[in-house]
Design a protein that fits this description.
The chain is mostly helical and 291 residues long. The protein has one domain: Orthogonal Bundle (MetI-like fold), CATH 1.10.3720.10. The chain has twelve helices and no strands. α7 crosses α9.
Length: 291
């Protein structure tokens, strides 16, 4: 009689998976659940019945205007953030600046890219507001009146400049690894073939970096478009942008219809979601070249 085979060992979940349980719970409770509530609420009436009225309400002139202003601010801050951040990162990585500058700049960028909300709004009001430090200093010492010149921190360009405080550092953090990935052999090969520095950048470096730059632009656009606390704390109701109208709609100050606010938030989720998908797709393409 053949000996009985030993029982198969019971399958156990690797203990390493337990390490991501807190993160999974955090994502489920504070990201997935609120998002699903917003999506469902956008298609409900106050009594809970299904409707498309809230989505149709997004096409009213005032709400469309707020979306258009928010898109313009996001495009402006993303474009300026990409330009300034790229130039700073290129000067740090390729421009021959002292290596001692790299660590402090990246550390500051890591902190500043997450500095937003009420503290950021207060910092800019205290600096460039009507009675801000820089505003008063320029007026008393040099006779430069920023308000008379048309600058107002509670305006389109004021909010755009405020957003640049976290847009530029975010660009630096993302583009620096891409610049590090440019191989020295590519530049040497271009020089051996008679290419100038401008031709190398135009025909080799920028085409390789373009997916990363364009993807980072999409990410910065989403980052600016979804910035709610900074816009509300800085402009209040003086600028007709989506976060301000969304806050008023959820609170019931305008029409008393929170579900229209859910629909506005749903529109923001769609726009930022598309921008993030574009960023991820372009980032994956750029990594093929930089490996």
């Amino acid at each position: 009689m053949a000996p009985a085979s030993p029982p198969a060992p019971a399958r156990r979940l690797p203990l390493a998976w337990l390490g991501i349980v807190p993160f999974a719970l955090f994502v489920a409770l504070f990201l997935i659940a609120p998002t699903m509530k917003i999506v469902l609420g956008a298609f409900q009436r106050v009594d809970g019945s299904f409707t498309f009225e809230n989505i149709a309400g997004l096409f009213t002139p005032s709400i469309l205007s707020s979306y258009w202003i928010s898109i313009k601010i996001s495009v402006a801050s993303a474009a300026l953030g990409c330009l300034a951040g790229f130039l700073m990162a290129a000067a740090m990585v390729l421009g021959g600046l002292p290596r001692a500058i790299r660590a402090p700049l990246l550390t500051f960028s890591g902190v500043a890219s997450n500095f937003a909300g009420v503290p950021l709004a207060f910092a800019f009001l205290a600096t460039l507001g009507p009675l801000g430090l820089v505003t008063v200093f320029l007026k008393t010492e040099f006779g430069i009146n920023l308000r008379a010149m048309g600058f107002n921190i509670l305006s389109f360009w004021g909010l755009t400049i405020t957003y640049l405080f976290f847009q530029i550092p975010l660009m630096i953090l993302i583009i620096t690894p891409a610049l590090d990935g440019l191989k020295r052999e590519w530049r040497e090969a271009a020089a051996c073939l008679g290419a100038s520095g401008g031709q190398y950048w135009r025909m080799v470096a920028l085409p390789i970096l373009f997916p990363t730059i364009l993807g980072t632009f999409a990410l910065l656009f989403a980052n600016s478009f979804g910035a709610v606390a900074t816009a509300i704390a800085l402009t209040g109701s003086s600028l007709n942008i989506v976060p301000v109208m969304l806050f008023a709609q959820i609170r019931g100050d305008v029409l008393g219809n929170p579900h229209l606010g859910y629909a506005m938030a749903f529109g923001m989720i769609l726009i930022t979601g598309v921008a993030n998908v574009i960023y991820i797709w372009l980032r994956m393409r750029s990594e093929r070249w930089l490996k």
